[in-house]
Amino acid sequence: MVLTGRNNFSEAGELSEIHNYYERLVIEHALVVLGNTGDDVELLPDVVCVALNHLPPRYVRHDVDASFYLSPQERDEMERRIQEAVKDAIEYVRSSVARRSLDSEE
After folding, report:
1. Nearest to 58 by CA among 19, 87, 24, 95
2. pLDDT value at position 68?
3. 17 contacts: CB under 8 Å, gap ≥ 6
4. What are the b/e assignments for 15-49, b being 16+ CB within 10 Å?
5. Burial of 60 (0-12, 13-18, 19+ CB in 10 A)
6. Per-domain residue ranges for the chain?
7. Rounded to an integer, what distance in angstroms lies between the CA atom of residue 52 and that of residue 86?
8. According to the model, what pLDDT value does residue 3 have?
9. Which residues are registered as beta bridge partners of 90?
C-alpha cells in the first residue's frame, strides 16, 4: 500500500521505531567473537553487513515484542543462524582483506 497525502504518523514517531531485530544481536555476537580490541575490530562494520545480508530480515517496533513472541525453538534457531552468519562473514571479510593485501603487494 502506498501512503499518499496526509496521514496520522509523525515523521520521526512510530515509523522511526521500526528496525531489523537481527541488527543488535549480530553486532553483539560479532563483538564477542572479534573481541573488543585489536585489528579485527576494524572489520566489524563489514562483518556485520555481510552477516545481516545472509539473514532473513525480521522487522519489529520494539525488541521486547520479538522476544516475547518467539518460542524457545525459534530463539535457539535465530541464535544458531546468527552464529553461523557471523562466523562465515568473518571468514569472508578476512579473506577479502588478505586478497587485497596480496594484490597491493604485486
Report:
1. 19
2. 82
3. 61, 62
4. eeeeeebbbebbbebbeeebeeeeebeebbebbbe
5. middle
6. 14-105
7. 8
8. 56
9. none
Amino acid code (one letter) for 28: E
Alpha carbons 47 and 85: distance in angstroms, whole number: 9
What does the pLDDT look like over 43-91, one tens digit per residue? 999 999 999 999 999 999 888 878 788 899 999 999 999 999 999 999 9
> What DSSP letter does each residue of 30-98 carry, written as one string?
HHHHH-SSSGGGGGHHHHHHHHHHTS---EES-HHHHHHH--HHHHHHHHHHHHHHHHHHHHHHHHHHH
Neighbours of 100 (CB within 10 A): 10
**CA–CA–CA angle 101, 55, 99 (5° rounding):** 10
Q: Are 43 and 93 in contact, with CB atoms under 8 Å apart?
A: yes
CA 55, 60, 63, 69: dihedral to nearest 10 degrees?
-90
The SS3 of residue 19 is strand
